[in-house]
Amino acid sequence: MIRAEGISLPTAVSLPPAAQPGTTVKGVAEPKLVEAAKEMEATFLAMLLKQMRETLDTEDGGGLFPGDTGDVQGGLFDLFMSKHLADAGGVGMAAALLRQMQPPAPKPTPTDAPALPPRGLTG
User: Fold this and answer.
1) What is the pLDDT of residue 1?
2) C-alpha 3, offset from chain centre
3) How far is CA 97 from each of CA 5, 17, 119, rounded to the nearest angstrom?
């Protein structure tokens, strides 16, 4: 466990295979789609981290980066941490986006359905 100012984080988080970016319903996704999904997840995580970091008490020199009045260090932290999280598997948003970007599966036609005997008739 990693401990920092009362916060405990597991050192390694394992996600189920379905939550890994690049895992799609129909197999391998195009590399451009995988990259776009990872970037979208990284952007979302950066915004989430920024909002979480802004909730820290900054009075009396507190906060994650005390003395950083321009929020430069905090912004860089959000950017690099979000990229790292997205590359490590993220929170499953990239995998969900990849599933949504896949073309829909063809629906079975009436000729594809198995033939059933008529009801009420016995042979």
Assistant:
1) 47
2) 24
3) 34, 15, 44
